[in-house]
Write a structure and sequence with these properties.
This is Alpha-glucuronidase. It comes from Streptomyces griseoruber. One of its GO terms (molecular function) is xylan alpha-1,2-glucuronosidase activity. One of its GO terms (cellular component) is extracellular region. The protein is an alpha/beta fold. The chain has three domains: 106 residues, Chitobiase/beta-hexosaminidase domain 2-like (Chitobiase, domain 2), CATH 3.30.379; 284 residues, Glycosidases (TIM Barrel); 121 residues, Alpha-glucuronidase, C-terminal domain (Alpha-d-glucuronidase, C-terminal Domain, Alpha-Beta Complex). 34% of the residues lie in helices and 13% in strands. The strands form five sheets. An eight-stranded parallel β-barrel has the order 7-12-13-14-15-16-17-18. The protein is globular, with a radius of gyration of 25 Å.
């Protein structure tokens, strides 16, 4: 593990355990993991594991046996000692990491009894990793941190120490599941389900000691591709029997296997539409095969027409997920999870919350976010996404006192941003996104800025206050800074086609993918109203349907997502749309330059390699921000003919 960044669990984070007596009561594989963690800390910093009292820290299971919800734990300071009581091995492990988060506070002063339980049952990372390097997408589709952690040269990696270290990082922020391969299942990856399940089992063995269950992406056409059947029709008995046999083989190899992730009838992937069946038919086929073993199928709702005619303004990609899945609410099996992207398009820097998340009262759902920064700087730009995710999770689809998205979702899923780069995420500061996802998945109503405090405190446990202040200055507003110099007011996809990095205002405007801004000489934005547009706004329940329908009430940050308006339309800020575009492009560049300056001043306060990597990436971020500014401002000056009120240089 030499040369690999320790992430948010450097040895120094465990220093508070030093010179302390620790009693561990309980047994089981995860308790053994807890014992190893404590033993390593004691060996490094002093302290000892004791068999009986007195003790400074007690980590215990009731009567030594797990009961009930195995992830729940309680922390309290009682009689001069800190006590963690858990209902199972996972809970005890999470409780230990909570003590590490608290640091010296865990052992001094009052620590009122506090119960910790996750709000979501499954907190999963989807790795879009290919077993064999894909000629277009490479080793990791939308991966910006090197190759796969799991696969190398067409087979499972043999350097399992790194996978174990990764599992440790994930457990420390509350993630309990990992899907180890790409949702776009190619021919090689399809074989993981059957002939190559042993390789998946080897990976699962490294994740298991930290309470991580392994999931697998499968192709819906597996009975044809792997089984030699002539059909994958979900209502055919031969197909059902094939899946039952395949799933039995999986559980023989991996008894605690979590389940499948499926992308079907989307972007060319096979699915039940081929046979005139519904998505509920397809999902329930796999759910039925998994049910006897306690497994789940995560069925992605990312389904839309990606071969539409750009001249047809009635087809709206934003509508697609709702149109496909809302009518099926209540038809999915109990262990079928509808995995819904948090916005209706595709992880853009600003989107409304998907209306599908308010339309599934009788279906188990998962909210899917993207930690890998496909449209938010690709881990070459600092863009901490905690505030974005928090806005989504706190959104109330029914308005008023209705439940939030975070309260309604059973599961939270993120597309992983990790690779085999020494810094895990390529950009060292992108680790904050991974940690923040885990903590928000555990508690969706958590304050993301307090979560960021946790990450800073764990990653830099001995850092002076100046470093913490500098990191907040760089990270806190980075999402909004990125938004300022890229796509404005809710429009998206102003990126280079294919790789999606850098500006291309019209890059997708006339393509079949359905992502348009409709800028012309008179105005900009997409009319998605029920009155005159695509009708997308009406997919929301009241009051949101009414809020988004009207230009007067639509939030400015989403104005161009829902409305086509003149360049002279006045925003709540008092600025016109065109002046807002000019001003925010310039502001975004200035903020990126200031973040670069702040970072330069933090040299000497951390490992040189980490500081140097970020400094190099800031040079690219500032260059790219200037390119975004100049291309977008020039584009809209030429479209609108309206000059900048401040007379700044626009080309």
């Amino acid at each position: 593990m030499n040369g690999i960044d320790p992430g948010w669990l450097p040895p120094e984070a465990f220093r508070p355990l030093g010179a302390r007596r620790v009693l561990i009561a309980g047994s089981g594989p995860l308790v053994d993991t807890v014992r190893r963690e404590v033993s390593d800390a004691c060996a490094r910093f002093g302290g000892e594991i004791v068999r009986d009292g007195p003790y400074d820290l007690l980590l215990r299971l009731p009567d030594g046996e797990p009961v009930g919800d195995e992830e729940e734990f309680t922390v309290a300071r009682e009689g001069g000692a800190t006590t963690v009581t858990a209902l199972g091995g996972r809970g005890l492990l999470y409780g230990l990491f909570q003590v590490v988060r608290l640091g010296e506070e865990a052992f001094s002063g009052a620590l009122p009894r506090e119960v910790h339980r996750p709000a979501t049952a499954l907190r999963m990372l989807d790795h879009w990793d290919n077993v064999a390097v894909h000629p277009v997408m490479g080793q990791v589709e939308r991966g910006y941190a090197g190759g796969s952690l799991f696969w190398r040269d067409g087979r499972a990696r043999e350097d399992f120490a790194r996978i174990r270290a990764y599992a440790r990082l994930l457990a420390a922020c509350g993630i309990n599941a990992v899907c180890v391969n790409n949702v776009n299942v190619h021919a090689v990856e399809a074989e993981l389900l059957t002939d190559r399940i042993g390789e998946v089992a080897a990976i699962a063995a490294e994740l298991r000691p930290y309470g991580i269950r392994t999931h697998l992406s499968v192709t819906f056409a597996a009975p044809v591709v792997l089984g030699g059947l002539s059909t994958a029709d979900p209502l055919q008995e031969a197909v059902r029997q094939w899946w039952a046999r395949a799933v039995h083989g999986v559980y023989e190899a991996i008894p605690d296997f979590g389940g499948f992730v499926v992308k079907a009838d989307s972007e060319g992937r096979p699915g039940p539409f081929t046979y005139g069946r519904s998505h509920a038919d397809g999902a329930n086929l796999l759910a039925g095969a998994l049910a006897p073993y306690g497994g789940t199928v995560h069925w992605r709702a990312f389904v839309y027409d990606h071969r539409q005619d750009w001249r047809d303004r009635t087809t709206d990609r934003a509508r697609a997920a709702y149109d496909h899945f809302a009518p099926l609410d209540g038809e999915f099996a109990g262990n079928a999870v509808l995995q819904v992207k948090h916005g209706p398009m595709d992880f853009q820097v600003r989107e409304p919350v998907s209306p599908v998340l308010g339309a599934l009262s009788r279906t188990r759902s998962a909210v899917e976010v993207q930690a890998t920064q496909e449209y938010t700087g690709q881990q070459r730009h600092v863009c901490w996404l905690g505030p974005m995710w928090s806005e989504v999770l706190r959104f109330r689809p029914e308005g008023g006192a209705g439940p939030t998205v975070g309260e309604s979702a059973r599961d939270l899923v993120a597309v992983s941003n990790v690779g085999d780069d020494p810094f895990w995420t390529g950009h060292p500061l992108a680790q904050a996104n991974l940690y923040t996802f885990g903590r928000l998945a555990w508690r969706p109503d958590a304050d993301p800025y307090r979560v960021l405090d946790e990450w800073i405190g764990l990653t830099f446990p001995s850092a002076p206050e100046r470093l913490a202040d500098g990191l907040h200055a760089v990270l806190d507003g980075s999402w909004r800074t990125y938004e300022k110099y890229t796509a404005p007011l809710g429009v998206g996809f102003m990126v280079q086609p294919g790789h999606h990095y850098g500006p291309s205002v019209d890059g997708y405007e006339y393509s079949p993918w359905g992502t348009y801004h409709f800028a012309d000489r008179d105005g900009v934005g997409v009319d998605r109203t029920a009155a005159t547009g695509t009708g997308y706004a009406a997919q929301y329940a009241k009051p949101w349907a009414e809020v988004y329908e009207s230009v007067a009430s639509c939030p400015d940050e989403l104005l161009l997502f829902f409305h086509h308006v003149p360049y002279g339309h006045v925003l709540r800020s008092g600025k016109t749309v065109i002046q807002h575009i000019y001003d925010t492009r310039f502001e975004g560049v200035e903020e990126a330059e200031e973040a670069r300056r702040v970072w330069a001043g933090l040299a000497g306060l951390m490992a040189p390699a980490r500081h140097e990597r970020v400094a190099e990436l800031f040079e690219e971020q500032v260059r790219s921000a200037r390119e975004w500014r100049d291309q977008l401002n020039s584009y809209f000056l030429r479209k609108s003919g309206v000059p900048d009120a401040h007379g700044r240089t626009i080309y």
